[in-house]
Amino acid sequence: MARGATSLDNLAPIAVLLTQWRHTAEVHADPALLALVTREAEGDFGPVPPKA
């Protein structure tokens, strides 16, 4: 990604990636948040619509 971003003179994708990594680290550092995002879903989400 870094090579592609620098070849295009656009470092925005790298900034987005680093922000995503930071958020992931924050979740893994907080046991309550980690439990919230890794638990099994409860209930039924309803029928899946047919493909068009």
Describe this entry's structure for a reader.
There is one protein chain. With 52 residues, the protein is mostly helical. It is 62% helix and 0% strand. The protein is built from 3 helices and no strands. It has helices spanning 2-7, 12-29, 31-38. It is flat and about 45 Å long. The relative contact order is 0.09. The model has no long low-confidence stretch (mean pLDDT 92).
Salient structural properties:
mainly alpha; flat; 52 residues
Give the structure's gist in a few sentences:
Helix content is 62%, strand content 0%.
Any idea what the shape is? flat
End-to-end span in angstroms? Answer: 35 Å
- Strands, count: 0
Q: What is the makeup of the main sheet? A: none
Provide the low-confidence segments as ranges: none
Mean of pLDDT:
92
Which structural class should the secondary elements be placed in?
mainly alpha
Helical amount: 55-70%
Q: What percentage of amino acids are in beta strands?
A: under 5%
> What's the alpha carbon Rg, rounded to whole Å?
18 Å
Listing every helix as H and every strand as E from the N terminus to the C terminus, the arrangement reads HHH
Number of helices: 3
